[in-house]
## 1
Amino acid sequence: MPMVYLTRKAEFSASHYYHNPEFTAEENKRIFGKCNNPNGHGHNYTLEITVKGQVDEHSGFVVDLKQLKAIMNREVIDVLDHRFLNKEVAEFQESIPTTENLAISIWNRLRSKLNVAKLHRVRVYETPDLFVDYYGEA
Amino acid sequence: MKAYLTRRYWFSASHRLHSDAMSAQENQAVYGKCNNPYGHGHNYVVEISVSGPVDPATGMIANLADLDGFVEREVTRRPGWYAISSIWTPS
């Protein structure tokens, strides 16, 4: 059976700032620059979720797009959209909400929720010119 | 955990396609209008991808300010690339 990859896009807006409490104020400023402002700043993020699987011969689908959209909305968009990531999203109490960590977080939120198709890639655009890919690699 | 970070950079440059190993007619036949001795220009976009473990202390694969400085020094403003006329680096 042919294996195909299907990508679905979604958008969310959120604010964040970069700060490591183990660094001094000077180190935080030097490493994170203007992203260290504790009042935060925002981005319009674009998310691409790619799943892979075999095309079901009855439906012609790899995955039911309506279901995939509902899972992405429930598990990711509803949690992140219009939130201050550092203050309102559990995992970013412990880690810094960089684009890298966002991609890993979204992967972890979705992985166990998909059963028919397998999660292949999470791509998060912070801007049109900057994005991170995560494939679940250790 | 290994992730991949991609950054897009923009630059403009002029060039001409020409091989000294071929006659003027052959150059014209192979390269067509790109063989114009006065050259022509493009707006190029280059995507630079880096991969590596996410540093738990910073949440980053690579510091973006360092990556921007590196790409600017080594690629988009590299000395000797006479044809490169301008650059726009996304902020």
## 2
Amino acid sequence: MDVKQIYWNPVLETLPPEKIKQLQLKKFRNIFKWTYERSAFHRRLYDDAGLKPADIQSFDDIKRVPKVEKSMMREIQGKAPFPYGEALCVPLEDVTTFRQTSGTTGQPVYQPDTWQDWEWWMECWATILWAQGYRPRDRVFIPFGYNIFVAFWAGHYAAEKIGCEVIPGGVLDTKARILKIQELQATAMMGTPTYILGMAETARTKMGIDPAKLPITKITCAGECGASIPSTKRRLEEAWGAKVFDHAGATEIGAWSFECADQPGGMHVNEALFLVEIEDVETGKVIEAPGRRGKMVITALDRMAQPCVRFDSKDLIEWADEPCSCGRTSRLIKGGVVGRADDITKVKGVLLAPSAIEEVVRGIKGLGDEYEVIVEKVGDTDRIKLRVEVLPQAEDQCALIESELVDQLKLKTNLRYDIEICGCETLPRYEVKAKRFKDLRKNEGIR
Amino acid sequence: MTQQIDINEINTKIQLLKKTAQELNRMGEDFPALARNTARILASVKMLEINVTDLVDLK
């Protein structure tokens, strides 16, 4: 095997766009027929829309296929065949793996997978890791508490499939993980941006270890959009002296997108395995042109046990207008996943995306990595409180930092904030998905 | 590199592999180790089909 080969699949990844479209249409027709014939839930949905498998002949026909929302999956689960309900397309005895969604937006959704589906998960991840430069000589450390969620399980096994040596850092604490990286000279690592930043802070402040001097050369991030936020990526790369790559995936979808080694300022959609459509949030019309942001509707073209067909993911993305220098023909989404449709909230009449606040906070040198945003109603007025941590060496510059924060936030979000500058390590730390944005108005029934 | 890859030839061998694994799987009715290991092989063969076979008939 030639480790200099830059593509995991040199045929599929360089397929001309018209052939990718052909492949997607062929596969969509297959998965539609599969779900129609095996899932009472999908059949009802499609019958109600007047659609039969033979009706799917073109991409315009695909647009007529009803979308599936997470709430619909919640409703059918917990029933026979227990616990997955009517969307299960294989006999229960063929299910070999259970995972569930994290429940960030409500009751978790159960996800069954067969061996074939699990192989497919690994295949998705193998494409990602190979594109990011993982090779058999890499020693990959995974500083993550493996559990009932899908996070990093597939990354682990895909790294093994590629031929890497994988060190599961499961139940170790942060200090023990850092020492293990040092002891075993690990060269790559996977984690959430929040946790990887926190590890660097622990190494520096509590262990006297400069993480940039550890042998980690590449880090694959998941779980949050931080690694695509330029100021967060910069912090991660400077802290670890490593290249940091983003990737996007979800339990009920699969690992559908990744940043390649060229770091083009966006992520490739793995279009051989997924059909990604972008819909205008207001009108629902499909956006084909680059540069217009909308929410993603996605189909996993080869996932069989509990298929994902036109799933309304609520991830906000936009097509990039330039192809990537790496030579892959799959399209790029500019800036990765830039937010979620249900995270964007109206404050003082202005649409606010939490990722815009992160970009500002992490772009200011005297501030630490953590922050917290609290939106509340005071009388009839929305108020945004932003709590940040000042680094010890910048404590005498608080006034200057506050002024820069206010100016940058006004510029990037067009809103004013009440700033609270806290000392180091006063804000909560997170290992999995950080919850830094708190909208207390929701508790009051105000939206 | 891409031009040197003959996906038709690779696909022929994938289909042979699949046929063999399916035959072994059928012989495993009273032989769990044979049935379950060949079932796993078939899951891997499916990945080969996704990587190669699915491309064979594209125009």
